[in-house]
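Dear support,

I submitted the protein below through the web form. The confirmation email said the job was done, but the results page showed an empty box. After a refresh the structure appeared. I'm attaching both so you can tell me whether what I see now is the final result or a partial one.
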Amino acid sequence: MWSTSLDTLITFNIAENCRTSFHQSTATVLPHSNLRKLNLSFNKLRGPLPIPPSSLVDYNVSNNMLTREIPPLFCKPSSLSCLSLSNNNLSGMIPQCLGNFSDSLSMLDLRNNSLQGSIPQMCNKLNDVFSPWLGSLPKLKVLTLCCNGFLGVIGKPKKDLKYFPKLQIIDLSYNHFTGELPYHYMLNWNAMTEINLPNNASYMDANWVYTLPNSYGSEYIYRYTITVAYKGVEIYYSAIQDFFAFIDLSSNKFEEEILEFIGNLKALHSLNLSNKILSGCIPTSLGDLSMIESLDLSRNNLSGEIPQQLNQLEFLAYFNVSHNNLTGLIS
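What the results page shows now:
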């Protein structure tokens, strides 16, 4: 079936099995001209990444043992929406050609690999800004670069671009980023400033319509999945409610103060700024994060008192400010 249905195969899903490899020892180029969804996650695949056809929309090879670098040939798809390469052992730098997906990408998960290099190097030093290799990503909702070897300063964005306006989940934890927190990008994260009332039946997803020759059109809906550290515990979500907003910038080398601006991100459910070199006081504006359930500022150089405004956070379930220089009464 895999080698014969070259024109008709639309979805190929062998997730959660024990497959170990493709037949070829070199990078497998998938020849299926109408393939839209490829899910090889939670197997034991080894070797290089399979090269997707230009028709692919959803590519998921997470939780395998794939190695080597992401090759330029990988950038063939023109409308890739979901890309999950997490929990493998991929190495090297991210190729600039991933910018081909700028207008379509809504989820990018590179968590827990061995990718490395500074952001300016990956960008070929284009204005020293964060991720111009991916453009402004107007549809991106989920960005996970956790647990790699990325380093360097996250610079200021170009003034004429609005970066990541739909972003709701960002995880840059356990890397080597330096400088101040990326406030200039946070200013554009509009999806985190507007509180949406929970709807238990609504989840983050991507959908697309496909039509084969001599057949009716069909719609496919893909629900995002992700692994994050939430309330002090690493959790795998097989579906993400569409109101969920999450920031984890922990375990980097960010420094300077936490600005009052961060209180504008009122839709946040989890904020983790632990294990850094942050200084100054805890901003009173954190009391405006009315939806926050998990707040971790531990292992920094914060000083002063814990703001009284935090007492008004009705949903706060996990609060950690240990290993700082805080003073005053516990109220």
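Response: this is the final, complete result; the empty box was a page-load delay. The CA atoms of residues 7 and 33 lie 6 Å apart.
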